[in-house]
Amino acid sequence: MNNTPKHLLLTLILLLFFRNTFSQEPTDCFDSVTICGNSNLNLNVNGVGIQELLSSNSCSGQENNSIWLKVTVTTNGTLGFTLTPNSTNISEDYDFFVFGPNVSCDNLGQAIRCSTTNPSNANLSSNTTGMNATESDTSEGPGPDGNSFVKQLNVNPGDTYYIVIDRPIGVSPFSLEWTGTAEFYEPPTNQVVSNINLNMETCDDLLPFDDGLATFDLEANSTAIIGKQTNTTVSYYENESDANIGEAFSLGGIYTNKRNPQTIYFRITNTITNCYTLGEFNLKVNPSPDFNPPSDLESCDNIEDGDATNGQTIFDLGIITNEIIQGFEEQNLKVSYHETLDDAESENKNLPAEYFNSVPDSQEIFIRIEDPFNPDCKIITSCYLIVNPIPVANDTPLIQCDENSKTDGLTLFNLTEAEEIITGGSPNRTIQYFLSESDISSDNTILNPEEFNNSLNPQNIFVKITDTNTGCTNTAILTIEVSTTSTNSTILKVCDNDGTEDGFYNFILSDASEAILNGLPSNLDLKFYETYQDALLKTDPLPDNFTNSIPYSQTIFARVEINNGCYGISEVLLEVLELPNLETEYETFYCLNLHPETLTLTSGVIDGLPLDYNYTWSTGETTESIIVDSPGTYTVRVSNTLGCFKNRIITVLPSNTATIESIEVIDASENNLITVFVTGDGDYEFALEDIDGPYQDSPTFTNIEAGLHTAYVRDKNGCGITEKTVSVIGFPKFFTPNGDGYNDFWQVKGISPQFQANSTIYIFDRYGQLVKELTSLSSGWDGTFNGKPLPSNDYWFSVTLEDGRTFTSHFTLKL
């Protein structure tokens, strides 16, 4: 409300449809629309945002499609309103809720006024609703309850209220008429005077130049709109709804239009009261000339101005013009060139079509482009005139050695050897060779410069150098000449002692340098090549560490140069000398028990005669063989007539016959065992009974029959055999005293005058009666008692051996 009329009509057009945006809308308390005097609102809203009405009113209402209003009054009085849907259809239903005074959005409390009456259900004749002076109730609804109006508010200056308008049913917009005596804050006003036009017009200066889009500085209008008002801001929007909602949709200052022409809405807001006023102005984009953006124009430096290295030359600006207007010839574009931007803006000091750049190497020039049908819209662009330097091209000689031993001054040249000097080492260069200067213009190149045969001595070759980055060229003269000097040949000999006797060896080629350069000037360079042609053409130089590719004997070639010219090519013979062929390691034994017998050691030579070699023994002897009588390590160096040698190592190991320390016997058992324990320097094997074997590595023998046995210990190294008799005690299980000569007597086996001679033997019948006492050395029991034969039966014995062992068991007498 304002100070002049007591009541103002505020029209709120509530257009409810889906809006594809994430920006804020006045569907929530925090985004409420501020109501001021003379306010006109046009809002696009939808939905409820955050549901804020649950349990906050006595009308059982909630948000369906809502708009929040914020009302601040400046005078005492009453505040009411009448809400009228645009459609008179009784089904168009609006509810409202009032919160306040002076509450915050995060603590609204309970509504002090509300109406959720449904006009159709209440059988009302009108679908209007609101607050007025005739009603006494403060809330009504829902559904058929009430008449859609409640009591108006009594307000005080500075009181602020939040009013929620909600449409639960229908689609109709509405108008809102404020009633009562209270007044609202005044909004700011548009201060633009009559002679100022806010509409903006510009040329299409963004590619493409025919789309009607350009950049505008919207804030250029802000000063005129605000005028002398204080506490006031201006913001800009694409439509009226965004302007009503406010800052969330603000465009900012620099803006590119989306349509041509296009209306822009501005919002003038009082920063203290938040009251605002809307206004609008138009944007228009006039077409600029359409053209192709020019490329930089490049040229190569040349001698036409008397200096090929000053970075200046003549440019044909028509090339740029053709590029600019290609495809736009029908526009009849006007194109001019200028040294400065100011000259281009003022169309001053046009450059000639054939222009000699004033700034060396790289100069920016400015281009003014006009469409004669729209001269107010011009385009100024620029490009660079770039002068690329010509490549370095140094004249140089190339000296080559005469081919083999010829002296005709003609030979094979590798012209590419001189490229490093000709180009000064510059990268990104291509080199072409020509026989004459006229061949350069006809592009008649020498096809194989790596293998070129001169026809004159000396002879000039014309060289064209091209910078592959810029295409700029230059020429030089290569003078080729055949040298008449020579160098020394030599031989490198080595013995094939690298561990593999195959005729190949890793030579240090620089070992030949001194002999090759002997007596020659001191400023020479030397490299080695596998073939003469490689040396002649300087292709595939060999490393200093080179293993010959042909076994035993190979000739390589040394090229001597002076100032990159050939001084001479010599031969280097690589010889790999064979070593003596002999058995390098040998092992034998010396029998200590045979000392002072001797042992003959030989040099081990396999090929040739003994007189073909020299011998040096570790004993100081120089014969092909030596005689020794003790173990040890003996070496002999065998050298051939070429001076190559090989060493033989002979290891003489000690050996000896065995000393039998003891023999362990496990006897009188089911599995009698004999184990022989020996000492000595030899490597021993063992046999039982037969001196000729068989022998075994193990000193233990199993399943031995009772009786006397001989154990043999043989040195594997041939030093002899040691033997010893051993007794194995055993008891026969039966005997047959029938006089047939087999098993006629029962006696303990293994007893002899040397073994268990003092043993005692008793034989008992099954009742324990002693029937025989035997001596250990007797023939045994014949099965009689007192001269009479005893019957077949089992009999018992008791034996006490000389070593103290006692055995008791039984045997069978069989007839």
What's the rounded overall pLDDT mean?
89
**What's the total count of β strands?**
57
Task: Assign the CATH class of the largest domain.
Answer: Mainly Beta
Number of helices: 8
The Cα radius of gyration reads 64 Å
Q: How many separate structural domains?
A: 8
Fold and architecture overview:
The protein is mostly beta strands and 815 residues long. The chain has eight domains: 9-179, Jelly Rolls (Sandwich), CATH 2.60.120.380; 200-284, no CATH class; 297-388; 396-483, Immunoglobulin-like, CATH 2.60.40; 490-577, Sandwich (Immunoglobulin-like), CATH 2.60.40; 585-655, Immunoglobulin-like (Sandwich); 659-728, Immunoglobulin-like, CATH 2.60.40; 734-813, Immunoglobulin-like (Sandwich), CATH 2.60.40. Helices cover 6% and strands 41% of the residues. It has eight helices and 57 strands. The strands form 17 sheets. Strands 1, 6, 9, 11, 12 and 14 form a six-stranded mixed sheet that branches. A six-stranded mixed sheet has the order 3-5-13-7-8-10, with no helix packed on it. The chain is flat, with a radius of gyration of 64 Å.
Features:
57 strands, 815 residues, six-stranded mixed β-sheet, mainly beta, Jelly Rolls, disordered N terminus, 8 domains
Give a short overview.
By secondary structure, the protein is mainly β. Residues 1-24 have low confidence and may be disordered.
